[in-house]
Amino acid sequence: MPLIAETKTLRISEPLALQSGAVLPSYEIAYETYGELCADKSNAVLICHALNASHHVAGVYVEEDGTVRAKSEGWWDNMVGPGKPVDTDRFFVIGVNNIGSCFGSSGPTTLNPETGRMWGADFPVVTVEDWVNAQAALLDALGIAQLAAVMGGSLGGMQATSWAMQYPDRVRHAVVVASAANLTAENIAFNEVARRAIVTDPDFHEGHYHAHDTLPRRGLRIARMIGHITYLSDDVMNEKFGRRLRQLANDVTQASTGPERDFQFSTQAVEFEIESYLRYQGDKFAEYFDANTYLLITRALDYFDPAKSYGGSLTAALGQVKASFLVVSFTTDWRFAPSRSRELVRALLHNQRRVSYAEIDAPHGHDAFLLDDGRYHSAVRAYFDKEVSHER
Amino acid sequence: MPLIAETKTLRISEPLALQSGAVLPSYEIAYETYGELCADKSNAVLICHALNASHHVAGVYVEEDGTVRAKSEGWWDNMVGPGKPVDTDRFFVIGVNNIGSCFGSSGPTTLNPETGRMWGADFPVVTVEDWVNAQAALLDALGIAQLAAVMGGSLGGMQATSWAMQYPDRVRHAVVVASAANLTAENIAFNEVARRAIVTDPDFHEGHYHAHDTLPRRGLRIARMIGHITYLSDDVMNEKFGRRLRQLANDVTQASTGPERDFQFSTQAVEFEIESYLRYQGDKFAEYFDANTYLLITRALDYFDPAKSYGGSLTAALGQVKASFLVVSFTTDWRFAPSRSRELVRALLHNQRRVSYAEIDAPHGHDAFLLDDGRYHSAVRAYFDKEVSHER
Question: I want to staple B77 with a disulfide (CB 3.0 to 4.6 A). Which of A46, A378, B72, B73 is the partner?
Fold first, then answer.
């Protein structure tokens, strides 16, 4: 019997003051919960999502006739569920869609209640800190004063880190996976190229593409292709694709025993499997992801930099933190390299915080944080079993 | 007195049979020469260019009034010239623009003699091997039977390697810098994203943008931005740009002593210096580089794989090579990593070839091959002084 997930939506009428100075008068948050909140409400774990994920962290959806919807597993279903590293038999786990995203919470694709029209490009710029404040409002509504843990990978790890800084009394543990305390110039550069591809697509229409009954698909495809390259390691890309040519229809030379086919000598045909893979990923993404959301979320990544207000000192920025941390990195992750996780670990240790650090030797690059790696999952499981549960 | 460069053009009427099976009935090659060819014609050095360079390797151009044209230094002027590592006081150096390029040799922006119209997208797909054959025809015309050395960086290094394989009796030395015997999946992936950005630009018009009186500038900008990210190392990008914000007009908070300005909270404004740099590089490139040429040259990079015809064995592919090699790599070059150069070195050693290898600890990534690094230039100078000159 799989875990059945159900999306709920909460409208919050308390205005949200954003870091930019703008105010969101009211907003909706889509979320899911798994497991049971215990009587003293001390077993809540909040999962924060990265660029293109959602509140649907774990479990599956069922159709009206009770059958399981195909391919509806949550994005971190290997990590969260009954008996899994984050065990929903013991923890009350909350998945939340961030505002500005496009999977149910208020964002560019939802209606602006003040105008009755879709927000589109007018949705305000949101930051990691704003997301944490909105998540805190959700917890208030659920009656949860303190989280047993907040957890996330990549941009989700930034939110977990920010939670411990913004609400030191509301977080006992922060689990920060494949993340960093800010982006490097190279990461900002990749985000910027992706954004330029989107906004220079003639179908972008200054972000009001829905009003023009179109979508900036070309730009989204390019953005996603760039993203995919940076999520994988060079090694795993060579292993998965290498220089293998894509099998052509009616091509007999590439049969299992024959020699590899010759090139087609074309600049636009798909020659290599890696090209086919990237085009497919780009096409798929362009159909379901909102372009304005892509701009907002990559910008939130760029902006996150808690040390900025402390003269660049991460140690000073973490001075008020009370939570204990589990920090995890992956050796082949060149987008959020282990050295960036170690910076966070050092700054926490300078503040005499309790920190566990696991550097996992995994070949999969940044994507590793989503994959089912035994050592990685064991480290998370052990932390939740021994550290997080311990304090209940 | 600087070295004065002058571009010459040779029309070759002997048809060129291309690897694709197509034939170029006749073609022009733009080239420059520096220094004097000695009586026995034994001191010629051919320099092969990479993606966006040309035959203008060294020296400067002078205007009609005899003044030096501003910013007209050749792309490898720090390497080639009188008294420089490749010393034009002793060697007769030839710079050549490859066919398919856009700086004077026959390519998409020149006229197809059979139709009298610009080639545009109809220029045939060319490969590294085709370029080497065209360069050999140029040498024939110059009466040069054997090169003292052939040299190039990146894609230019692939041509140097291919020279030694295609014309083993015509090359005494090959100098291969920041290169590889084929591209990795990741490199192909970056090329493919750049190409998709170009061909999906509505101004591309299936490659016949000139006939539509436009240029696919959006696509070229994106392509160049991606390229620039991959030419630099993460380290040098952090050092040159880091997370520094771009100074705003009339902004006083970023004066030398004040605190850093706050963000503008915008998804499209230039916030970071790295964004400003990339946009500038993209804009500049889109004005001078031809889009069809970009497609052709990145495809030549993808296709180069001499081991492919030898069951994947680079050692076997190099079996007929007679030249000695200098191979140079740079520690922070993640596009053509040192491990790729070492593959080439090993395969040459398996063939009992004479090989010198220098792995330069330089912070500049792939770009390092164009920069004036003392250890790098010393290694090249020593090789030309002791090995190449020795045999004259």
Answer: B73
Closest residue on chain A to B294 (Cα): A267
Chain A partners of B282 at a C-beta cutoff of 8 Å?
196
- Please tell me the distance from the alpha carbon of residue B104 to that of residue B119, in angstroms, as a whole number: 13
The 10 Å Cβ neighbour count of residue A331 is 16
Q: Amino acid identity, residue B174? A: A
| A226: chain B residues, CB-CB within 8 Å | 193, 226
Between CA A161 and CA A146 the distance in angstroms is 15
Q: How many residues does chain B have?
A: 392
**Among B83, B86, B107, residue whose Cα is nearest residue B30:** B107
Report whether B307 contacts B317 (CB < 8 A). yes
Exposed e or buried b for every residue in A366-389, given b needs 16+ CB within 10 A? bbbbbeebeebbebbbebbeebbe
pLDDT digits (tens, 9 = 90+) for B13-54: 999 999 999 999 999 999 999 999 999 999 999 999 999 999
Q: Which chain A residues have a beta carbon less than 8 Å from that of B229?
A: 186, 189-190, 193
A154 counts as catalytic = yes
Distance from CA of B87 to the nearest CA of A (A): 37
Start-to-end C-alpha separation, chain B? 28
A85-133 confidence digits (pLDDT tens): 999 999 999 999 999 999 999 999 999 999 999 999 999 999 999 999 9
Beta carbons of B37 and B148 less than 8 angstroms apart: no
Judge whether B3 and B88 are in contact, CB under 8 Å: yes
Q: Is A178 left (phi over 0), alpha (psi -120 to 50) or beta?
A: left
The CA-atom distances, in angstroms, between B128 and each of A19, B50, B147 are: 53, 11, 18
Cα distance between residue B243 and residue A185, in whole Å: 6
* d(C-alpha A178, C-alpha A379), whole Å: 14
> Are the C-beta atoms of B279 and B270 separated by less than 8 Å?
yes
Q: Both tokens of residue B175? A: 């100098």
Q: Which residue out of A154, A162, A324, A329 is catalytically annotated?
A: A154
Q: Hey, how many other C-beta atoms are within 10 angstroms of the C-beta on B101? A: 29
For residue B93, the SS3 value is strand
User: Residue B62 is encoded by which pair of tokens?
Assistant: 């002078």
Helix extents (H) in chain B: 128-142, 155-166, 185-199, 217-231, 234-240, 273-288, 291-303, 314-317, 338-350, 374-382
